[in-house]
Specification:
Length: about 400
């Protein structure tokens, strides 16, 4: 992928696609600005080099023009972080936008309105992509979180606007989620959690090809237990995935991967934050009880296994960490990874719920890399090509 470095940026109109799809509350306040902060280095680099930045993103999944999905609430935070007043356009294409672009000074930033206000965006309509492209001289894709979508502003636009290059965030995500995972410093451990095996099959299969140690946690473990003939009480089980669980265990064995399942679990008498709970061996879950977290022995075993590693990737919580009582396993892993990071181990948090867990524990800053993608990081970890990245590879790379 062409990188954004020594290009001559001065005076150039640069179309930057970022993923500023941040959560807003009912009063339109940003409740998590991580994605805005993550987009700043590329935009700063551009403005410091005298470019005119045309900034574009989607927000939510609007059906047509919907005021509550406007990007307007992002302007104050963006302006604050960039140290300049960001100008907001009311549209993302058309004569008014063209006028605003024409009056943009060097080092200025124009934030376009939500690209998904046009259905042509998600349809990857060539005419719409061409209209977006016509605004600028150069395309920078920094929207890692949306790189798994072949949309007009992430994919189609590269056909009409060259050079098309990756921004710093997109590049960093690829360096860690592809680079560090494909050629890891070994031993390399993968920790995979989450409630369903079905949503993690691809990730587990792909990581089994690369890792030395695989630690499994979260609701999915009960499908593995049941596949091994254990009783799981009323724990979550995907009955149609029992054979798959068995074959994943066999595959790990055949590949020489040390696959560890929790040896004890925290069980509850109902799915609620105030449920009665106790710790039992994984082989002794009584009828009517459900497993909601990994137990203390498992935490100890997992920690010991992690001690030996040089690279760790984590995707998916160990238990129902939204309930404090069942957050202990997930929080212990987050703390362990923070310690390992401090000792020079490469620690990668692969998107979604595990990011929320690491943030809850307050150790986000300690990790080598925290992905800003949900679906995008999952697809990348499954070994899939992301259309937004592929489009850049096919576009003319910029000399560095
Ligand atoms: C995300 O939040 O995962 C990205 O912004 C992509 O959003 P989407 O799933 O609506 O395409």
């Amino acid at each position: 992928v062409g990188e954004l470095t020594a290009t001559d940026l001065k005076g150039k109109k640069v179309f930057v696609r970022a993923d500023l799809n941040v959560p807003l509350d009912d009063s339109q306040n940003i409740t998590d600005d991580t994605r805005i902060r993550a987009a700043i280095p590329t935009i700063k680099h551009l403005i410091q080099n005298g470019a005119k930045v045309i900034l574009s993103s989607h927000l939510g999944r609007p059906k047509g023009v919907t005021p509550k999905f406007s990007l307007a609430p992002l302007v104050p935070r963006l302006s604050e972080l960039l140290g300049i007043q960001v100008v907001k356009a009311d549209d993302c294409i058309g004569p008014e936008v063209e006028k605003s672009v024409a009056s943009l000074p060097e080092g200025g930033v124009l934030l376009l309105e939500n690209v998904r206000f046009y259905k042509e965006e998600e349809k990857n309509d060539p005419e719409f992509a061409k209209n977006l492209a016509s605004l600028a001289d150069l395309y920078v894709n920094d929207a890692f979180g949306t790189a798994h979508r072949a949309h007009a502003s992430t994919e189609g636009v590269t056909k009409f606007l060259k050079p098309s290059v990756a921004g710093f965030l997109l590049q960093k995500e690829l360096d860690y989620l592809v680079g560090a995972v494909s050629s890891p410093k070994r031993p390399f451990a993968a920790i995979v959690g989450g409630s369903k095996v079905s949503s993690k099959i691809g990730v587990i299969e792909s990581l089994l090809e690369k890792c030395d140690i695989l630690l499994l946690g979260g609701g999915m473990i009960f499908t593995f237990y049941k596949a091994q003939g254990l009783s799981v009480g009323s724990s979550l089980v995907e009955e149609d995935k029992l054979n798959l669980a068995t074959s994943l265990l066999e595959k790990a064995k055949a590949k020489g991967v040390s696959l560890l399942l929790p040896t004890d679990v925290v069980i509850a008498d109902k799915f609620a934050p105030d449920a009665n709970s106790k710790v039992v061996p994984s082989s002794a879950i009584p009828e009517g009880w459900m497993g909601l977290d990994i137990g203390p022995d498992s935490i100890k075993t997992f920690n010991e296994a992690l001690e030996t590693t040089q690279t760790v990737i984590w995707n998916g919580p160990m238990g129902v960490f939204e309930f404090d009582k069942f957050a202990v396993g997930t929080e212990a892993i987050a703390k362990k990874l923070a310690d390992l990071s401090a000792n020079g181990v490469t620690t990668i948090i692969g998107g979604g719920d595990s990011v929320a867990a690491v943030e809850k524990v307050g150790v986000a800053e300690k990790m080598s890399h925290i992905s800003t993608g949900g679906g995008a990081s999952l697809e990348l970890l499954e070994g899939k090509e992301l259309p937004g990245v592929l489009a850049l590879e096919e576009a003319t790379p910029v000399a560095v």
